[in-house]
Design a protein that fits this description.
Pathway: Cofactor biosynthesis; FAD biosynthesis; FAD from FMN: step 1/1. By secondary structure, the protein is of the alpha+beta class. The protein has helices at about 10-20, 65-70; strands spanning about 25, 40-45, 55, 100-105, 110. It folds into two domains: about 10-55, no CATH class; about 65-120, no CATH class. It has a three-stranded mixed beta sheet, with no helix packed on it. The longest helix has 11 residues, at about 10-20.
């Protein structure tokens, strides 16, 4: 398995140059992700992107399914999820999820880890594009 860092389009261009025989890429998108609601399990990349068949094996997974899989298999994940973030975007649009806010024993505000989110529908409440999010700090 290869992991490339950075912008998806640029990473696919790099992959195409370094491994021109590769024809298929696995994507981690789910139906609950913004802008994904019309995808199928397979899709070709758009014409202005490097040519690949994209497979979406997690398309029908829920927020809870993802966390159960990661935690049951002890797979590594971004440590921001342990700090109260439940949905990551760019720095200006991503906030800690207020649904995970607690007051710790010292009386200070803290946040639970993302896998402890009680209501999966609140997954995107830490993103500025969400019109359903509660008020933040």
């Amino acid at each position: 398995m290869l992991t490339l860092n950075g912008d998806i389009k640029e990473s696919l261009e790099t992959l195409k140059k370094s491994h021109p025989k590769y024809k298929v890429v696995f994507m981690g998108s789910r139906l609950s992700d913004p802008g994904i609601d019309k995808l199928n399990e397979t899709a070709l990349t758009d014409p202005d992107w490097p040519s690949y068949l994209r497979l979406f094996p997690l398309l029908h997974w829920s927020y809870t399914d993802v966390w159960k899989f990661l935690r049951d298999l002890w797979l590594p994940y971004c440590t921001l999820y342990d700090q109260g973030y439940t949905s990551l975007g760019n720095m200006r649009d991503t906030l800690k999820n207020a649904s995970l806010k607690i007051i710790n024993p010292d009386g200070e505000q803290d946040f639970l880890a993302a896998y402890l989110l009680g209501d999966p529908k609140a997954e995107r409440f830490g993103r500025r594009f969400s019109d359903r999010r509660p008020e933040f700090l």
